[in-house]
Design a protein that fits this description.
heterodimer, A: about 240 residues, alpha+beta, Ribosomal Protein S5, domain 2, 5-stranded mixed β-sheet, 5-stranded antiparallel β-sheet, B: about 240 residues, 5-stranded mixed beta barrel, about 35% strand, flat
Chain lengths: ~240, ~240
């Protein structure tokens, strides 16, 4: 290990940003942030800021149509200004992969069979990256789909679990992702109890893995509750006005 | 079907929320009822959309806050001509599927050699039409044969969200009657989120537009009919 590697767990057992291992970062959510989209949402996990927009179900070119269900098209993209160093706006291999895994996570909950030959387009734009962008993106996409009135089985909450300095921690940030031993993003549909996204970068023992999944589920449940609260509040304001 | 309810009427529900449990023997398995926006797993009933619950005696459904128009047979819609083919028009009815209107439906003894479709209905023009056929495998087919149907040549078109249409009509047509009687406008409500109004003068048309926009913005407010009534009376006088 190199000399420049920062200590990720302080002597008092807290993490670099002062959180306990099982703490989430402050999370903020807002729906219907864009006028032109059918549904949209803005989600912040600490310094990570992601916006998602949903269009459709709408007409789609013959070439991409499916005869029995709607195609779900997802684009995960990081804005050039989202990182400390300028990122080329062209989609990278990483972004193409993340678009795919997020699409598959959403396909597990969206009732695409209701709209044969149509398409549902989801655009996820990372405005500011500080670790956990794919999970924040998944949360935002799920909220935007709900806002657009697209039928689905459940909402999906995303959260990343990591291992830093030998400790399993929840909702890792950029620093912990970069210098940690493992990073495990998780997408969880808490209402139906299904994991719809699971990736693992790094090494975990089977015991650590089980612990990480449990911690991730519990974290996702808290985010899930906040998602429901956000949706509820939006129309409560309308109902009471 | 005996239900044990978890939600009240007009309560806000989100995808995945449990609405009720069927208190009966017999496992339903997985079942989905798209029109009601609910799905069943075993004996639990869940919402599949973000909206308000509508609970009646032995039935439960969810009315979404937001939705695109999904065509149904027999619906009256307002379409915008988008394309002209040799024997039919392509019509945009604000749904995920493009609708078609056959020329033989609009022109008597239609013959593509003699008739130029463009001179009957041009791109950008609007028609009030009825859906005669639609299913999962084919695009909606329209007809303009029928009372009141056809090309729209006068009046104003007000665009609203398709999910607001039931509210603009109201329970047993209460809102519709209120709007037409107070403004003296002739009003046609199309299921795909358009309202066509023919008003005696421009001012009444404007007031009607404002009233409908008000419904579009906050359709789920309690006592909306009363609020709209007051608004119309204020603008137009008792």
């Amino acid at each position: 290990m190199s000399e420049s590697r920062p200590r990720l767990i302080r002597e008092d057992g807290l993490r670099v940003d002062g959180r306990k291992p099982e703490d989430l970062r402050p999370i903020r959510m807002e729906v219907e942030v864009l006028k032109n989209a059918n549904g949209s949402a803005l989600v912040e996990y600490g310094g990570t800021k992601v916006i998602a927009a949903v269009y459709g179900p709408r007409e789609t070119p013959k070439a991409v149509q499916l005869p029995d269900r709607a195609v779900l098209r997802v684009r995960y993209h990081m804005a050039p200004f989202s990182t400390s160093e300028h990122k080329s706006p062209a989609p990278t291999r990483r972004e193409i992969e993340l678009s795919k895994v997020i699409r598959e996570a959403l396909e597990a909950v969206v009732f695409t069979d209701q709209f044969p030959r149509a398409s549902i387009d989801v655009f996820i734009e990372v405005l500011q990256a500080d670790g956990g962008t794919r999970t924040a993106g998944l949360t935002a996409a799920s909220l935007a789909l709900a806002d657009a009135g697209i039928p689905m089985r459940d909402l999906v909450a995303g959260v990343a679990v990591g291992k830093v300095d030998g400790v399993i921690v929840l909702d890792i940030n950029e620093l912990e992702d970069e210098y940690g031993e493992a990073d495990m993003p998780l997408g969880y549909a808490a209402g139906i109890g299904e994991i719809v996204l699971l990736q693992l970068n790094g090494v975990l023992t089977p015991e650590e893995f089980k612990k990480a999944v449990e911690l991730g589920k519990r974290g996702a449940e808290r985010i899930y509750a906040q998602m429901k609260e956000t949706l509820h509040k939006k129309y409560l304001a309308v109902l009471e006005s | 079907m005996k239900l044990k309810l978890y939600v009240a009427d007009r309560q806000i529900v989100r995808p995945g929320d449990t609405l009720a449990v069927i208190e009966e023997d017999g496992n339903q398995g997985f079942k989905r009822i798209p029109e009601k926006h609910i799905y069943l797993v075993d004996n639990n009933i869940y919402s599949d959309v973000f909206g308000v619950a509508s609970v009646s005696e032995n039935d439960i459904s969810v009315i979404p806050f937001n939705s695109v128009y999904y065509p149904r047979k027999e619906d009256v819609v307002i379409g915008i001509i988008e394309g002209i083919g040799v024997t039919s028009w392509e019509v945009n009815i604000r749904s995920p599927y493009k609708a078609y209107l056959n020329a033989s439906d609009a022109i008597e003894n239609f013959n593509p050699l003699y008739h130029d479709l463009k001179s009957y209905l041009d791109i950008g023009e609007m028609v009030l039409a009825k859906i005669v056929a639609f299913d999962r495998t084919r695009d909606p087919l329209l007809t303009i044969k029928g009372k009141g149907l056809g090309k729209i040549i006068e009046g104003i078109i007000i665009e609203v969200k398709p999910s607001r249409i039931p509210r603009i009509i109201g329970k047993k047509g209460s809102m519709f009657n209120l709007l037409t009687s107070k403004t003296n406008c002739e009003m046609t409500v199309a299921q795909n989120g358009f309202v066509w109004a023919k008003c005696p003068d421009e001012y009444r048309g404007e007031v009607l537009t404002q009233a409908i926009k008000l419904i579009d913005e906050k359709p789920h407010v309690r006592g909306l009919t009363e609020e709209i009534k007051q608004f119309l009376e204020k603008k137009l006088g008792g």
